[in-house]
Amino acid sequence: MADDISSHSNDKLSRRGLLFVLSSPSGAGKSTLARMLLGADDEIAMSVSVTTRAQRPGEEHGKDYYFVTGDEFEEMVADHAFLEYATVFGHRYATPAAPVQKSLEHGQDVLFDIDWQGTQQLYQRAGQDVVRVFILPPTLAELRDRLESRATDSNEIIDSRMQRATSEISHWDGYDYVLINDDLDACFAKVKQILSTERLRRARQTGLIGFVRDLVAE
Ligand SMILES: Nc1ncnc2c1ncn2[C@@H]1O[C@H](COP(=O)(O)OP(=O)(O)OP(=O)(O)O)[C@@H](O)[C@H]1O
Ligand SMILES: Nc1nc2c(ncn2[C@@H]2O[C@H](COP(=O)(O)O)[C@@H](O)[C@H]2O)c(=O)[nH]1
Fold first, then answer.
1. Ligand in nearest proximity to the CA of 158
2. What atom of ligand 1 comes closest to residue 182's alpha carbon?
3. Predicted ipTM?
4. Kindly report the CA angle at 58 between 52 and 60, in degrees rounded to 5?
5. What is the mean pLDDT of each run of 10 residues along the chain (218 residues)?
């Protein structure tokens, strides 16, 4: 296991940046939106998760996920290396703490593509620093179409993801924003808008734009 994802000090998690979460039922488009955001915004870094699921064609270890065995995963749990972890579709997924801490220390916001269980855990730990965005497909039929046309999963896996979709959608009220990803560009524009609004809100809270207040007071 790479040192950069397993060595950490959880209790020193810096609070300077935003933890920006995108969740959705599988296939609604959160990874696509995440990629677009990373390409458009230098001030946000992706949190690369650890998983025990098999690598898909085209996925890169360390870029899309850190692919580990079940034993390696449980060792990292025992070492308190994770900010959150959950079982999704029968596989283990987790957010390594060390890279998140590093990004925050460098003044970057951090982007998470995690499920509702991980979002709840992150929110319990980091509270107001977390911005939670839930992405919905326009319809369940369209969700299936997207999973099929992505062509990364067998029919059996697609069926199981569709079966889980309704229960995942039932957690929408644990989120700060809910967006329908019908038109991709329109949805992306809303994601960017949410991020910039939340950055401004945070800057107001932390006094980073105190100089504006000083100017007005003069
Ligand atoms: N608005 C959209 N209209 C049509 N197709 C879309 C739209 N958004 C995403 N897609 C396509 O849908 C498929 C699923 O998208 P994506 O892989 O981003 O979903 P996901 O929510 O990250 O799924 P998972 O949780 O399984 O990783 C991809 O082929 C993507 O190109
Ligand atoms: N709680 C967490 N959920 C995660 C994490 N990384 C990904 N995920 C979620 O798992 C499903 C399936 O993802 P896939 O890439 O196998 O299709 C999806 O809902 C992701 O958001 C994580 O670190 N923690």
1. 1
2. 1
3. 0.97
4. 55
5. 50 66 96 97 97 93 97 97 95 97 92 97 92 97 96 90 94 97 98 95 72 63
